[in-house]
What does this fold into?
Amino acid sequence: MKFSNLMVVIGLSITLVFSIILAVTIGPVNVSFVDVYKVILNKGFNIGEGDAI
It folds into this structure.
């Protein structure tokens, strides 16, 4: 994979993650950005403590 293609893939991946977090944050329920970030890290990547959520 060329360097420029790799940068495009990385950029689009970052954009996708932030758009998901933004969509969940401004959805119908009032949820803080930090809580959304903790849940996505815990459920998606198994990072952090599950009982803290």
Observations:
- The helical segments are 3-25, 33-45.
